[in-house]
Amino acid sequence: MPEPTTPTPWAAGGVGHSPIRPDAEAKVNGAFDYASDLAFDGMLWGHTLRSPHPRARIRSVDTGPALALPGVAAVLTAADVPGKLHYGLIEADQPVLAPGEVNYQGEAVAIIAADTLDLARRAAALIDVDYEILEPRCDAGEAVAAGDCFRYQPVRVGDPDTARAAVVVAREYEVGMQDQAPLGPESGVAVPAPDGGLVLHVATQWLHSDLDQIAPCLGLEPGRIHLTMAGIGGAFGAREDLSVQIHMAMLALRTGRPVKMMYDRAESFLGHVHRHPARMRYEHGADADGRLVYVKAHIVLDGGAYASTTEAVVGNAASLAVGPYNVEHVSIDAWGARTNNPPCGAMRGFGGVQTCFAYESQMDALADALGLDPLEIRRRNALAQGDQLITGQVVDAVDPDKAAAGAPFSPLRDLIDRFADLPVPPVPAGRDIVDLPGGTGNTTHGEGVRRGVGYGVGLKNICYSEGFDDYSTARVRLELGGPEHDGEPVAYVHTAAAEVGQGHWNLQQQIARTELGIRHVVLLPNDTKAGSAGSSSASRQSYMTGGAVKAACEAVRELWHDRDLADGPIEAVRVFRHRATKPMDPVTGQGESHVQLALCVHRATVDVDVELGLVKVVDLTCVQDVGTILNPVALEGQIHGGTAQGLGLAVMEEIITRDGHVANASFTDYLIPTILDMPPMRLRIVENADPDAPYGLRGAGEPPTLSSTPAIVAAIRDATGLPLTRVPVQPEHLTVRRPS
Amino acid sequence: MSTAAPARPAFHRPAAVDEAVRLLAEHPEAVPVAGGTDLMVAVNYRLARPEAMLDLTGVAELREWADEGDAVRIGSGVPYARITAELAAVLPGLAAAARTVGSPQIRNRGTLGGNLATASPAGDGHPPLLATGATVEIASAAGARRVPIGEFFLGPKRSALRPGELVTAVTVPKAAGPQQFLKVGTRNAMVIAVCSFALALDPAARPIDDVRGTADYRRHALAVCAARALRRVWAAAHERSPR
After folding, report:
1. For the domain bounded by A24-32+471-577, which CATH number is listed?
2. What positions does the domain FAD-binding PCMH-type occupy (chain B) (predicted)?
3. How much is the pTM?
């Protein structure tokens, strides 16, 4: 047995390497079991009847004809909810089933269990709901004016009203409602347990948060409900809120049989929250050198009908409202409005995306007004070590080269300066039509095409903010393996952390290999028998569950010094917490509210067919500080994916609502980028390690989603000369409906 | 409303056209299916619930094209991928349109016959067929008939196809000069047309206003496309640069 005094990464399977993911083969060859693939003997199918109206009173619900259909086992309404009637991630305000009124189109009214999904759907059509249709409120501004908000958060610094500026830029911006568009639809199975409890197979971002919300609504002790993770087909925030969980559990309890629910694509669009659409009025004042003097902003986010995570999204929007720049005088007002639009909540970037589009557009407008280079104006205003965010939080970046004398280290200037070695790519010659705007549509052979270049910078908080007690738990057991492991030590790692496609399972194995100096690491199923891992959100899972697995491995390693594995396994459980944060002051917005800050800078090069208004992004170059690279391939995947979602918001992705009705709940009409829309990327990954974080890592999944959108829009502005204050930019905006 | 559990659709799989039309006469409720790229989406969205299906993929004669001298006769079951790969030299407009259909997987399955039978205004195959004056061949138990493409489309999703009839082939005149096909969508691939343009347009066509694009924009984009296509054809004919 090797003496484990000097742990070394196992070959190429440890931290810093890119071993093959444990789920790779099954996902590539189609054998991976996603939640929608689950099947149990004697299983019924559940289905949800949803409101066709954005706002209505329910006079009555007649379930009789549906129940009379042979093969229908149960039809349940609000009257059948066994426990609490409402649930929610932060505030329990969303009805399990609409009790007497509906507040958005798609709100769940009744649930059905039947022998087949088709039959359950037919039964749903037989339920007679008598609606009294009411006028929906669909304008977030009206809701704010009426004081109907989930949260209002101001930030006040200095005195922006008397501050003097040489140049002032004031504009209004709008961000459309983006969807996470995970490819795997919401799905799960509830299986009754012999003791009257339940086993729930769910695809969620946070098992324990689900359990905390499910149990009270079922009127069951949490200990009688066991959640186990089903295969997750993408999340991006869409799996933070509950979807099928309570409904299938109610049907399983009622029928005593396993019940599966699975949304189709249209229902998926109605059955999860979206990114908050935003209207923002920004005023930036700068001195003659382009240094920011003041920023005033009104930020209205449409939270839709129920709270979801709007409260936390508003906090991010307010605290990150000016980006990574120094400003002496600040007045920010951010609202999360309650309307009868679809509920909005978590999506990659989480409140940082909307304001990033606005503040970066403002930086470009100032640069334009002053005749400054867009990177130079950002350099001049970049936050440095010791500077404060507008919340008063001190930037605690550590100079990677401590010997360097002179000005305090600025993480943003460091990233910007790397573009000196990254020239704008030249126009490739002799290109195929698929390289031109319009792509395979053959709309241009070069006619009307103009090139533009633009930059965007994003600032994102990593981990949960504002005083939230954020932690993760890991159990590691080391034992001597059998012949299948060549008699070598095997580590069993047990957490509840969600593998949403980001490669977290792989990282857990890498950490165990590195910390224990062993080859074989077995991951136990993610379930609620483990302690909470927190959410696979906020770019936090490498930091938090990575930190917990590392700590548990270190504890096992210590014990291993004095013991022989032949005498029995060694086990340790560790809970990992990041440093504490504080809430924002409700009047001034002040407070050390964030844990870790992450920066990303994008440069976009676009070709625009200015006559047809079609856009082809031809290059995206990204410079991002990730602290320490833990897995190069997974990291590049995160940057590519985050960038692509930002591209989608820039030029195509929007859920269109009309009077509260969703008009494009399909992949036919809600477009996401294809391989012909997303160019190959050039990455410059910077490792300025964070001494507070495990391995010095910095959360990496979200920052690229912020900065790619403003970079692409800036490039389109450069090509067209149009102001472009709304995303997604549509062909109409570049041609017949140019915004002023 | 029926209270019985729905039966699985009956599935007929003929091996020849005469067998197909006989089955269709016996089972008028049967919906013909080839690539299924429209029908199965409708089924999945529960917009269609066929009681019976007539699978045409076993009919070998529908899956071939033939050179007829001045024209090419394309079996209704020839997938778009083959039109692009095999017919670009003689039918450049149609081949260019076929290239814009869906994704590679869709182009491997989807057929021109299905495009015609669905008769969607967004059908990518239609403009080049209209521009070149193609002829649609239709078969039924009563015999075969030929319909000029200009008389085939009666309106959105409505065609001259009668109950019991199948589209069996399209005869497309070979290109006598340069052809162009342009399709505008809000994505660079795999997108349903906002509008598209070949060398002939129905002057009575009125663009619609929907989530994919406004009528104003469609009108504008068509005008740009028309000008560009005409400039290109003119330039090609006179051996000049299109700009």
Report:
1. 3.30.365.10
2. 4-177
3. 0.93
